[in-house]
Write a structure and sequence with these properties.
Helix content is about 75%, strand content about 0%. With about 160 residues, the protein is an all-alpha fold. The longest helix is centred in the C-terminal third of the chain and has 29 residues. The protein is globular and about 50 Å long. It has one domain: Heme oxygenase-like (Heme Oxygenase, Chain A), CATH 1.20.910.10.
Length: about 160
Amino acid sequence: MESTTAGNRAAGTPDRGGIEAWLRLGEACGLSRSEILDHRHVRPGVRFAVDAYVGFARTRPWVEAVASSLTELFAPDLMAERLAAFEKYYTWIDPDGLQYFRNRLVQAPRDSEHALEVVVAHCRTPAEQDAAEAALSFKCDVLWAIMDAIDHAYA
């Protein structure tokens, strides 16, 4: 798997994109690249939730897909907490693999600011604003479904 030029720019690194950083995180946690790429460890509820979100983004108006990404507004603080927890409690993970989270500390604020600008510019009517709010709510439901599926599988 090779990163795209756009993915490289988004990751802020000259030779590796966001997907590559995600793969390195999985490897740092002890998974082989083939285990990550063939999705053998993805729980069915997680797969269902992710597929529902991808389907939403493909079939809804583009501005609603952008609005659904506004969960990123809360990502920087969450990513910082997540990174600190990984560094404190999961010392067996290769620190280089945590670059995925470090990248998100920079990317999430930029992505969410752009998404917010798009939504404010294009969601002018009450109906458009309601649709944007519903899209964001849907994304929150997707994230809860992912967390519930993981909790159910491993708790």
